[in-house]
């Protein structure tokens, strides 16, 4: 009985895990040599994607390189619906900025 219960629980877990797999249309890489974090992502009209976060030192988005003006700055990157980067900007002061 105990083995049957364990098997039943495992089968439900596997079915649940398979039903929740994400489907990706595209994946993009961004980051820098220091600390960086994405804090929010939002889909915009037309399928574009806005990504925001914070970083130290510098951060790279395909051909755009953003350099921090302070201890920690904020970034906003826009990706087109096909996953290509459209624009990346940073903003912040000399202190710690966070979005």
Briefly summarize what is shown.
The chain has 99 residues and is of the alpha+beta class. The chain contains 1 helix and 7 strands.
SSE blueprint and pairings:
Layout: H1 2-19, E1 30-31, E2 36-43, E3 49-55, E4 58-61, E5 64-67, E6 73-79, E7 85-91
Antiparallel strand pairs: 1-4, 2-3, 3-6, 4-5, 6-7
Description of the molecule:
With 99 residues, this protein is α+β, with helices and mostly antiparallel strands. 18% of the residues lie in helices and 39% in strands. The chain has 1 helix and 7 strands. A 4-stranded antiparallel beta sheet has the order 2-3-6-7, with no helix packed on it. A hairpin with a 5-residue loop joins strand 6 and strand 7. It is globular, with a radius of gyration of 20 Å. It starts with a helix and ends in an 8-residue tail after the last strand.
Count, helices: 1
* Proportion of helical residues: 10-25%
Number of strands: 7
* Content of β-strand: 35-45%
Keywords:
99 residues, alpha+beta, four-stranded antiparallel beta sheet, three-stranded antiparallel beta sheet, 1 helix, 18% helix
